[in-house]
Amino acid sequence: MVDMINPQLKETVLDPACGTGGFLTCTIDHKKQLVQNDQDERDLQTTIRGIEKKPLPHLLCTTNLMLHGFDVPAVRRDNLLSKPYSDWGASDKVDIILTNPPFGGVEEDGTETNFPQKFRTKETADLFLALIIRLLKDGGRCAVVLPDGTLFGEGVKTRIKEELMERCNLHTILRLPNGVFNPYTGIKTNLLFFEKGSPTKNIWYFEHPYPDGVKSYNKGKPIHIKEFDLEKAWWNDRENEAYSQYAWKVSAEEIKNRGYNLDIKNPHQVADELESPEVLLKKYQATEKKISDIQDEIIKVLSEALK
Asked: Residue range 189-193: average pLDDT?
């Protein structure tokens, strides 16, 4: 995600739910390649920002940044969702947001009242997505990890996705396979890449494949960064037929007609040829009757043998 967003030296980078600092340290390593003098180093030190709500991850993140050569406080312990949405002004906005907000979590009662009526929900990931749109400068870029539920969810989720597509160019959704976050969660996730300032016209999807011989990821066999060389090769060559089995493009108009449901399956993969529920039910009932008849026959044979 950091490689694709490609933060430049003087661009401000924020992770509003930074945990132990994975995105921040990757950004630091990325920017360090651009440092050539003392002023560059100062620019690096003053353009990295992180927010973390919980005390232990905040402490670990601060330590992590110190080990990466940071001698100024860059991580604040806070919850950005607790500040009224309307209070965020131009001076708070940043060039880049890289984050994996908590999903499946619920905020404390009253937190949702900090947001406009159309965005009010207690679901943490939804509130963070609405806030991210607010905090980006025009021309600002974002890469965010979100669960499948955000893509197909309705109600508030629909209104947030509409806001996202109207105010930002949601140009890429990378669909990750099962198990990426095992053993912490089995929820399927996606990487969304967008730029604020112009509405979405088309969305490119890319389905990340398992490596040969792998059926799922786990703690012992996690996803590896080298696997994303495929996406990196495709990123600037999206029409190339070599990637057609993984990539497909959907117009914003089609998304709107779907009620802003972004959960679009890969059209190049062979779909499971499932029959209708009615046909499946009849087949199940027929199979069940056959099993019952066989059981009755076995009981009959045994009964006669015991006479």
From this structure: 96
Rounded-to-integer distance, Cα 164 and Cα 151, Å: 12
Cross-sheet strand order for the sheet of 75-77:
75-77, 48-52, 13-15, 94-99, 136-147, 189-196, 168-175, 202-207, 247-251
Q: Shortest CA distance to 123 belongs to which of 143, 142, 102?
A: 102
Query: What whole-number distance in Å separates Cα of residue 186 and Cα of residue 88?
Result: 34
Terminal CA-CA length for the chain:
75
Strands 13-15 and 94-99: parallel
Q: What is the pLDDT of residues 120-164, one digit of tens each?
A: 999 999 999 999 999 999 999 999 999 999 999 999 999 999 999
DSSP label at 243? G
> Whole-angstrom Cα distance, residue 61 to residue 55?
10
Do residues 162 and 260 touch, judged by C-beta distance below 8 A? yes
pLDDT tens track for 257-301:
999 999 999 998 755 445 566 676 777 677 777 888 888 888 888
* Distance, CA of 150 to CA of 143 (rounded, Å): 15
Confirm if 36 and 79 have CB atoms less than 8 A apart.
no
> What ranges do the domains of the chain cover?
79-257, 274-307
Average pLDDT over residues 61-73: 91
Task: Give the CB-side neighbour count of residue 6, counting CA atoms within 13 A.
Answer: 4
What is the predicted pLDDT for the residue at 304?
81
CA separation, residue 17 to residues 52, 116, 144 (Å): 5, 21, 11
The backbone torsions φ and ψ at residue 189, rounded to the nearest 5 degrees and listed phi first, read -130, 170
Q: For residue 202, what pLDDT band results from cuts at 50, 70 and 90?
A: very high
Let me know: does 151 contact 188? Beta carbons within 8 Å.
Answer: no
Whether residue 107 contacts residue 124, with contact meaning beta carbons closer than 8 Å, is answered with yes
How far apart CA 104 and CA 222 sit, in angstroms, is 22
Say which CATH architecture domain 79-257 belongs to: 3-Layer(aba) Sandwich (3.40)
Mapping DSSP to helix (H, G, I), strand (E, B) and coil, where does residue 13 land? strand
